[in-house]
Amino acid sequence: MVRDLPAPVSLLLGACKDHNNPPVVPCVPVVLLLTSPVLLEQGLGPSSRHRKGVMLFQLPREAAEYKAKPQVARGEGVRIHFILLFSRQGKLRLQKWYTTLPDKEKKKIVREIVQIILARHQKTSSFVDWKDLKLVYKRYASLYFCCAIEDQDNELLTLEVVHRYVELLDRYFGNVCELDIIFNFEKAYFILDEFIIGGEVQDTSKRSAVKAIEDSDMLQETVEEYMNKPAF
Predict the structure, then answer these.
(1) Residue 49 to residue 56: CA distance in whole angstroms
(2) b vs e for 115-140, b when ≥16 Cβ sit within 10 Å of the residue's Cβ?
(3) C-alpha span between 29 and 38 (Å, rounded)
(4) pLDDT band at 20 (very low <50, low <70, confident <90, very high)
(5) Where are the beta strands (DSSP E) in the chain?
(6) Taking each helix axis from N to C terminus, what angle separates 206-228 and 185-195, rounded to the nearest 10 degrees?
(7) Which of 53, 58, 96 is closest to 192 using CA atoms?
(8) Across residues 165-194, what is the average pLDDT?
(9) For the whole model, what pTM was predicted?
(10) Which of the two ends of the chain, N or C, has the fewest CB atoms closer than 10 A to its terminal CB?
C-alpha cells in the first residue's frame, strides 16, 4: 500500500514507522490531513494518534524546516510609497500616496523631490537615493513620472511599471499628452487605481484596465442621459 503513495510521503512514513531503529535526523510532530483512505491503513507506531481524520506522526526536522521556509509569491513586485507626475516647470499634475502622511509633509516632500529631479542632467541616472527610500523617475515628453520605492526593491522593474502606466494612458487617450492629464485627471486616477492598489501592481493587462474605464464611461453616459430626460 505504501507504493501507492507519493515517494516523499512513503519515505517519511517508512522512517517514522520503524520506531525500533529511529532515524538519525531528529524529528518533530507534524499534522497531516487524511485525504486518502490508504493513509488510514498505515501503522505509524506508538507515536501515532487518530482524531477526526487527522494523523500525527514524526517528520524529520530538516524536512519540517524545509516546509516551513517562507515561499515568495510568484510575480512579487516592488512596493511603491507614492507616485508623482509633474511638468518641466515643476507643476504637479498627479499625485498618489500609498503611505499616510500629513498634508504639510506631503507638500514639503513634493517640493523637495521636484527640485531634486529637475536639477539633474538628462544623461544622469534615473535612480536617486533619497532618505531611506529610492526615487525612480522617467521623463515622457513634458511630464516626469516619479515613484518612491524601498531601497532594496528593483529599480528596473519600477521603470517597467512606470512605462506600463504610460502605455495604459496612451491606449485610453490615444497619444496622451500633458493636456489630457490636466483636463481628464479623474480618468488618469481611475486608470492608476485599476493598475496599482496599495502600492503594488494588481493587473498588468492593458485590455482589462482600459475596458474597466470604458465601462465606467458608458455607465456615466447612461446616467447622464437618464437624468436629462424630461420627467412627466
Answers:
(1) 6
(2) eebeeeeeeeebebeeeebbbbbeeb
(3) 20
(4) low
(5) 27-33, 49-51, 54-60, 80-87, 92-97, 127-130, 133-140, 143-150, 196-197, 200-201
(6) 140
(7) 96
(8) 90
(9) 0.62
(10) C
Q: Cell 517597467 belongs to which residue?
A: 160
Q: pLDDT value at position 45?
A: 45
Predicted pLDDT at 216 = 84
Q: Which three cell numbers stand for residue 18?
A: 520503524
Alpha carbons 62 and 27: distance in angstroms, whole number: 8
Q: Using CB atoms within 10 A of its CB, is residue 13 exposed (0-12), middle (13-18) or buried (19+)?
A: buried
pLDDT digits (tens, 9 = 90+) for 34-63: 344 444 444 444 444 444 444 444 444 444
In the chain, the amino acid numbered 35 is T
The one-letter code for the residue type at 148 is: A
| DSSP state at residue 174 | T
Q: How far apart are CA 210 and CA 223, in angstroms?
A: 20
